[in-house]
Structures are given as structure tokens and as C-alpha cells.
Prior knowledge:
The complex is a heterodimer of chains A (512) and B (289). Chain A contains two helices and 38 strands.
Amino acid sequence: MRAAGLLLCTAAFAAAQGVDANKLIHPPADAWLTYHGEYNGQRHSRLAQITPENVTRLARAWTFQTGQNQAIKASPLLVDGVLYLTTPDNLWAIDARTGKERWHYRHPANNAFHIGHRGAAVYRNTVYLTTPDCHLIAFNAEDGKKKWDIIIADSNKGYWSTNAPLVVGNHVLVGVSGDFDNVPGQLKSIDADTGKVQWIFYSTPPPGKPNSRSGPDSGGATGGQFWTTGTYDPELDLVYAGTGNPTPVLNGGARPGDNPWTCSIVALNPNTGKLVWGFQVSPHDTHDYDANEVPVLVDADFNGKPRKMLMQASRNGYFFVLDRTNGKNLVTAPFATVNWAKGIDSRGRPIPDPAKEPKRDGVLVAPMESGATNFRPPSFDPKTGLFVVSAQDGYGIYFFKPEHGGYGWAGADYNVAGKSFLRAIDYKTGKIVWSHAIGDGAGTAGVLTTDTGITFSGDNRASVIALRTSDGATLWHEDIGRVQSAPVTYELDGRQYLLLGGGPSLIAFALP
Amino acid sequence: MCARQILVVLSAAMLAPGISIAQAPADSARTTKKAAPRDPAQSPASTPRPKAASTEEFPAAEVRTGEQRFVSQCGFCHGRDAAGGETGPDLTRSEVVASDMHGDKIGEIVRAGRPGGSMPAFPLTDKELQAIVAFIHTQAAKFASLSGGRRTVDETDLLSGNAADGQGYFNGAGGCSRCHSATGDLAGIAKRYDALTLLQRMLYPSGRPAPAPPKATITTASGQTITAPVSAEDEFSVIVLDSNGTRQAYAKDTGKVQIDNPMSAHFEQLGKYTDTQMHNVFAYLETLK
């Protein structure tokens, strides 16, 4: 029902100039306006030209070479026939019909971490880019001319950014990374027009304010970074975002208690930055289990009643369903091998097992540091009610001794071995409906589902793969290089495209 | 140069699932040292620091330039100070770094990357590379002059287990003796690896020397049966090494492919160990000197 309504809306707004607030809520078929495509983070497309019957006929329409050493980890945006693609320090505007570059911004060399970049954001006629050294830069979408350039965090203090901002109204929400240093986690709202700071939400107390009224006592923990892109519910007017691990990372003794709001999902008012509710996915984390995975928003039945839900398959190995109006837990169930928790508490939170905290002689822990899943986005398929996620079963060994101290990593850990799968979870029960092996080690590709019942992703060698969403059977694959981004899709001139990165190349597929 | 040998080394790396860079195989095709075959790329935190071949000092400006590039491109994995990060080994304790002269060893790895995707290749100019080399050597010298270290795991940390119980588990419930023998393949194992490396290899063998690769038995459409070591595999094909060491690819949909992977038992064992059993078996292996 809702899908049909959205399709009608798209026609009405297609003629609007630039990307306004309404268009972001009701994106047209010929666009991919935010990192997740839509505010709900479902990464599910209603486009139906590519079907299980014809998917084997997909062929390359064009390829764009970034010329970079690093693989594409971003989801490109599509606005008015132009794609915006990022890698660390780079933003390209690319003609979506031909794959030809229109303009390219290259940020000056800097010594912040260049581990990846998730994408740009767009509002009206402005494109926003975060840089490794924590600048947020606004560009004229048409010609790439810089409008303003601000600093969102001090990269000399250990922050860096890979973040694709989330635009809500005239708020550009940006986060940074930083778990090598004891620095507080922060989500900033920047005025889309002027670049002025509107508000800052701290997930742990801001510097110099250990008992800040802005949040609960974190028990001495810093960290809880917002390094991924959140989601937004326009009806409730709430932004949802996941926070990263506490610091010091492996030394839990230095920060007693649950350490809110690290490893948490928080619901914030986008106009004020005030916390409406928080749910801690990993209380007192000692294994680097960031809860930054996508908080996917779903409106559907739960126990026979329509519910506004939030779902996250978290790095700690548990799948959570929450009532997103109030943060109350509906489902907590493992979707990968876990041994770090000794049960689930009355609020639906896993209870960490002290025996699995890092020790001098080492403990064997599942999942390992790279996680049961990670930055790679999942997808929710409304037709089947399946939540499809790139999962990993595996173990790591974790060490801590007092000599490691209380700063930064404060310990040592090593991944031992893992195996990866695309897994489909029934959101009503948390049960695994199917599991499709994609290779050894951790996966890197995100997931896209479509209304025709296809799940697109990548395996751990070099293939883009298409599976049948209902049972996980393989429909199509092609060797394009290791996929480290999430596929996106859109319709242009009546043709549906599938777009994804294979290594450092951006490849557009379409039916002949 | 022996191209085939390199090929084998490369493919062995691909077989080691879940390896982090800390466990990437070393450049065995190049290394000719007669010392114990310890993997220089293993996080050697539990070993004494290797002695540097070069005691060269570098111009401060070059070191600063190198630091900038190192931090931005290498720092996430290897740490901003080169002493280890989220997934990469501590370079200040690396034997590759210790044996490097003017970038001859470091440069090769930086430009070619590590096999299996554990480290990408960085196509740097000579000048850029020299600056990074200057920074890494400067850091290695700096750390060698310090005691302790915040990411170290020492041999004494790991010896908490009971060797006799470990032996019992090895020969009994653990099932280790089904494939291994203390007087056979594991004789002297504790002499061959430092403590942390031995623990890692006990849990899941990878690195150098490479563990035995999986074996594929392929029945082709024409009914021919081929048995060969696997170089790489995915859902769609298997690549094996023929008797000449050449890679041969077989599509899985045109014949029957059966894979026998000796590593599977190690992976399954990860879910069975208690931490005490793990420490006990390790203590037992440490007695095999």
C-alpha cells in the first residue's frame, strides 16, 4: 500500500528543482538521493524491470575508473542524471548516462586515516563531502565550485571521517571516527546553507565535562563514535543512529558499568539534537563491537499488530527489533556465532560474560573484532519480511594486561578465522530462513533487494551475485573485482540500472 | 627466479581464510635466511626485537614527509606510530623492516601488496617510498630504545595452562591426534615458532610455512577424475594447481567437485575449546621443543 503511495508522490515531485525536503522523503525512481537511497535504510527498490527471469542477461552499460589505489566503498548518489561518487579525499560528478566525468574535486593531502569513504550527501543544489581530516565541504552540484568549507572535528586529536552525511530538513548530520584515542563520540548538525553548527550530541561526556548533563554517566568511558549514516522517520520526526565502541577499547576495567551511550542505538530530535531514547546493543563492550550498523526502519505487523519498528543486525552477532517510537525491545536473537554473552536481560540486551573479557593469557571470542557484520549495509525485503545481511561466523583472541594501560586500544587482539554468509532473517522471530556461503574471511559487499524478488550483493572473491530473495538460490553472477560497496539501482530514460563498485571501478549494469 | 614457486606461495595465501595482515605469508621466495622459519610478517610481539641491518639516520624533513603519508595510508592497519593497528602487524618489530636496506625489502611489499588482499599495493614514487622507509626505520629505532610496549603479548603471558591436561585433551576429547603427532609433524614445534605465533597457528594454521592446502577431486563432464591441491575456490569455480604448478580453473556447473579441506577440523574446534582447554593444549605444545 505504502509503496503505491510513494510511487504516486514521486511523479508529483519529479519536476521540482533541486533536492528539497519532500523529495528526500519521497525519492523518485530516477534518483538515489541519500546514502541508503531512502530515509528508512531498507535499500529495497520498487523497480521491476530486472527480474529473476532476465537477470542473467544483465550486461555492462559503462564503467568509470576512479584511477585510485583504493576500492570503492561508497554508495553513489544520483541526482538529475548526475552521479556523485567518493573515495577518501575525492568527489566526482559523473554523467549517469555515459559514465563520463563532469567534474572532480581532490582534497589536499593530509595525514588522517584514509581507510575508506561512504559517500556524499545532497540538498537543494549543494553536494556535501566529509574528508579524512574532518572537513565538511559544500559544493555547487552543477560545477563543483566550493561554497564553504568547515572543520567538524580536530584530526590532530585522533578523529577522522569516512562519513556520508544525512540531510534532514536543513540539517546536515555528520559524524567522525576515532577509536585509537580517548575522545568523545559526537554527532553534529550543520546548517545546510551556512555551514554553522546547529547542535552537537555527545554519546559520551564532552571534553572537560565528565558529569555533563547532556547524557548519563558513561562510567569514565570515552568513544561511541557516529561513523556511519543513520536513518530518519519523517512522521515521528526522529533520527536514528548507531554509536561505536567505548575507549579505552579492550580495557573494560578502566570504565566500569554499561558505558552509555557507546555501542548503542539512539533516537534524536533532528531540530534540537536531544536524546529521545537510547538502547544499548552491547553494554560494557570490550571487543570493539561497534553498533554502527544501519538502523533499518520498517512499518509492518508484529504479533498481529501494525508496529513502527527499527531493526539492526549488529556487529556483536545479535539481531535486534525495537519499537522505534520508544526504544522498547521486541526481538533479540543471534544471527551468527556468539559466545561473549551469557544471556539476554529483561530489556532485551545481551549480558556480557566477564569470562570473555580480554585476559592476559587470551580468550577465544566470537565474533572476532571484524564482527558478525560491519559497515556493509543490509537490506529489508517487505514482501517476504526478510532482513538480508552479510554475516560472518568466526573467532578472535583477545588480550589485556594492566601493562597495556588505559589509553586508546589498551590491549591486543587477533582475528583467528571466519566464514561469511548472506543470511536472511525472519524479523518476527529472528530465525535464519536461509544462509548462502560467500567465502572465507569477512564479507565486504552490502545488500540491495528489489520488488521482483532479487537480492544483489557480492562474494568474497570477485563476483557480483544475484540471489532469489525467497530462498537464497543463485540467479546470476559476474566477475567484476571484489565488491566493497553496496549495490544501488535506479531508472533512467526508462531503463533500470544496477550500479556498484568492483575494486576501484564503478560499473553500471543494465538489460540490453 | 622461480615463477612457479611464487605462484604456489601466492595461492597458499588465498587459502588461509580470515587471515589478517598479521598472518599474511612472508616473502619466502626472496628470503634466504637460515634462521628458524619464523614468519616475519606475523605479529612478532612476543619475540625479541630483531636487530636492524641498517643503522642509518634520516633527514628530519624526510621523516616528517614519510610520517604524513604513512599515517594517512598505512596508519589504520599498522598504527599511526607503525607499532600495530586494528589489523596490521607492529612494523617496529618486523624482521622485514629489520633486514631492509634503503627500502629494498619494504619497497617490494609496499608496491606489490600482500597476496590474498590482506594488504593492497601502493604505487608510490621512489621519493615517496623513501620517505615512508625513513619514517618506519626511525620508528623502529625509537621503539627499540624503549622498554615494554602497549600492544605486546609476551611468552610468559601465555603459559597459564596445564601441559599434562593439554596432552590428555590432545590425545582424547580434542581429537588433535587424529591428524597430528607429537613425535611426527609437531616434533620440535615450540622451537619453530614464538609463543603468540604458535598459539595462532594452533588455533588456525596460516602464514608461513603454509598449511596443507585443501584437495579437490574433480569429475569432469567426460568422466575424467582429477585430484589436485586447491589454489582458490568460490561458489562458481575451483582453481587447482596441476602437477606443473600451473593454475587450472574448473567451472563447478560442468562437473562434480569435491573439496577435502584439512582446515575444517581446526575451524570446528574453535567452537569446542573452552579457554582452559585452549591454554592447556598450548602449554602441551610448548613442551615440544
